[in-house]
Every structure is written in C-alpha cells, then in structure tokens.
Amino acid sequence: MQLLTIDFLPGRDYDVLGIVKGAVVQSKHVGKDFMAGLKTIVGGEIKGYTEMITEARNIATDRMIQEAAGLGADAIVGVRYGSSAIMDGAAEVLAYGTAVRFK
User: Fold this and answer.
1) What's residue 58's pLDDT?
2) Which long-range contacts (CB under 8 A, 24 or more apart) does 25-28 make?
3) Fewer Cβ atoms within 10 Å of its own Cβ: the N or the C terminal residue of the chain?
4) pLDDT grade, residue 90 (50/70/90)?
5) What is 2-102's CATH number?
6) Residue range 44-84, pLDDT digits in tens
7) Residue 16 dihedral angles phi and psi, to the nearest 5°
8) Domain map of the chain by residue range?
9) What phi and psi values does residue 96 have, to the nearest 5 degrees?
C-alpha cells in the first residue's frame, strides 16, 4: 500500500474509493507517567511520551491501511495525522486519507 501526503497522483489514472481512517487512544503506565513528570522539572525530551505517540501513530496507520485494503485500494493519498490529549498521559491519534485504486 502506497501512502502519500500529496493530494493527487500526477500522471496516474485511478478511481477514488473514499476516505479511510484509523484511530487509537494510547496511554503509558503509571510508572512511566511518574518519571515523565519528574523529567518536566529538569527539561529535555520525555522519551516515554515520544515512544507512546510513535506507537499510537503506527497503530493508527495500520488501521487506516487495513480499512483501505478492505476497499481494494492500491494507495492512500492526502495522508494526514491528528492528535489530541484525552487526559493526562493519554492521547488520541487519528490517521486519515483518501483510498484510491489504480486503473
């Protein structure tokens, strides 16, 4: 499955199958959340949260790809990501785009 951030494929004929998306709400366990809180005192990257958001983005992407594959898509164009804090230590990640099938 090709994932593209561009909104269309120049020089390719394709049918638009529709919007596809994948979402996940991810959190870290309380021990890592506590350590992240301590890190805010001294500054720097909070690796536990970086790992959490990377894992969440990968899960959301996989779910979006599965939905597109179910439609018989060859690619997803206009791929975008969004995120929002749900509560302390938990974030939602949404991946979305337009599924297309090449002619």
Assistant:
1) 97
2) 25/56, 25/86, 25/90, 25/91, 25/92, 26/52, 26/53, 26/55, 26/56, 26/59, 26/90, 26/91, 26/92, 26/93, 27/52, 27/89, 27/90, 27/91, 28/52, 28/89
3) C
4) confident
5) 3.30.110.70
6) 677 777 888 899 999 999 999 999 999 999 999 999 999 99
7) -85, 125
8) 2-102
9) -150, 160
